[in-house]
Amino acid sequence: MAIAKIGIIGASGYTGAELMRLLCRHPGVEVAYLTAHTYAGKEVDELYPHLHVYRGMRFRAFRPREALEEADFHFVALPHGEAMEVVPPLLEGGARVVDLSADYRLPDPGEYARWYGKEHSSPELLSRAVYGLPEFYAAAVREARLVAVPGCYPTAALLALGPLARRGYPLEGCVIDAKSGVSGAGRTLSLSAHFAQADASVKPYGVGSHRHTPEIEGRLAELSSRPVRVNFVPHLVPMSRGILATCYLDLGPEASPGDVASAYEEAYSASPFVVLLGEGRFPETKCVSGSNYCHLGWYLDREKGTLVAASAIDNLVKGASGQAVQCMNIMMGWEETLGLEAPGLFP
């Protein structure tokens, strides 16, 4: 196996640190280039002591020519609105790019401007970006030069609902009740993520206005070939990692447990990172913490025709950096699981 030289642009955030943690044990790569505007010149293990394996390696300021000279595959872990400034020169220089921001997830630049409050500076790349949810888009990811990693909430919601969308079940008006740990807010300080604010408290936020809503609706519409509108309500819970998405939908009296089970089994029979718990058994975030796995369970009320489907992921791994590495593996023609096989940390 030829060793690929990897760059991480924006390596000082939580997703960048998680990329470094995952890639340090990946047999096919060498992390060669790390950037962090705020921490340029600082050694990695000064900021993140747990990443002592990178001792002696420093964060740098991003320079396109230097990036292209030192690495040929780049992860971009910059905030929304900043990634689209660095992705074009990397692509023009011949690099392959996996972007963890939202800048290339929405195919419509107008929709991006509406939800993210900024005009897109490289709209011509939106049609070339492949949505990086391997369970549904692996064939396109394999041929891509630019992959947009899904958001953490959309990953959890789409893994729970995608097989049903493909089968043609009605999703209009379904409720997605999702709960996330505070690391989803990133390293930037915010009042809601302060310990005194978040500890021993649970609250909904972004109701009716969360930026992940069009991403969820758009991909469900694509999978089901019909318009879809959902009621997405995220909640902040007092834990560091994890997302639990509990989805409620009315399938009608014709739905049967066997049909629902077969929809999930068919969708994920070749998906190494989706663990089907089956009907009546539900996931918990603790069991996927630190891993790239999604645990999925469901229950169909036969009398009412209502389904409850729940998925659990680690928001920083399957919801971000682990999924990015999974996409890289596919793009490089490697085993999809390479460097990602470790199960969750428990307890």
What would your notes on this structure say?
47% of the residues are buried. This protein has helices spanning 14-23, 44-47, 64-70, 83-92, 109-116, 134-143, 152-166, 195-198, 213-224, 257-268, 317-331; strands at 4-9, 29-35, 73-76, 96-99, 130-131, 146-148, 175-180, 203-204, 231-236, 243-250, 274-279, 294-301, 306-313. The model has no long low-confidence stretch (mean pLDDT 96). The chain has 347 residues and is α/β, with parallel strands linked by helices. Helix content is 31%, strand content 20%. The chain has two domains: 4-128, Rossmann fold (3-Layer(aba) Sandwich); 152-316, Dihydrodipicolinate Reductase, domain 2 (2-Layer Sandwich), CATH 3.30.360.10.
Euclidean distance between termini CA atoms = 35 Å
Spell out the helices and strands N to C.
EHEHHEHEHEHEHEHEHEEHEEEH
Helix segment count?
A: 11
- Report the count of strand segments: 13
Q: Summarize the main sheet.
A: 7 strands, mixed
Low-confidence stretches: none
Q: What is the CATH level 1 assignment of the largest domain? A: Alpha Beta
Give the CATH H-level superfamily of the largest domain. Answer: Dihydrodipicolinate Reductase, domain 2
Please tell me how large the radius of gyration is: 20 Å
The CATH architecture of the largest domain can be named as 2-Layer Sandwich
